[in-house]
Amino acid sequence: MLFISGLDSAKEEHATFERFFLQRGLATLTLDGPGQGETWYRMKMRVDFEVTATAAIDWLRGRGDVDGTRVGICGVSLGGYLAPRCAAFKPRLKAVASCGGDTR
Q1: 35 or 50, higher pLDDT
Q2: N or C: lower Cβ tally within 10 Å for the chain?
Q3: Residue 100's CB: how many other CB atoms inside 10 A?
Q4: Which among 5, 9, 77, 98 is annotated as catalytic?
Q5: Contact in structure between 63 and 34 (CB atoms under 8 Å)
Q6: pLDDT tens, residue by residue, 14-23
Q7: Domains in the chain, please, with CATH?
Q8: Cβ(98)–Cβ(75) under 8 Å?
Q9: Is 95:73 a contact under the CB 8 Å cutoff?
Q10: Could you tell me the pTM of the whole model?
């Protein structure tokens, strides 16, 4: 499960969410994308976050300890908007969950 957070969150804050996936036998990859968390000081946020998801999926597919062909994505806060956007543009994502993305 690819896990992405909001604009002002860092990947280290999501151990609680990750635990729920891990208890169900799902591997997790939590990252700070461009303009998020620790990357905020070095890169700008980008709306085409599916570019970031593509890089993460490519990296997972190169690993031997996870099935990179069965990747889902979950996002909280702004990530709750970015996760469905990624899923809309990237058919390699097999599942999507949004938590807290308000599209009003």
Answers
A1: 50
A2: C
A3: 12
A4: 77
A5: no
A6: 788 889 999 9
A7: 2-99 (3.40.50.1820)
A8: yes
A9: yes
A10: 0.85
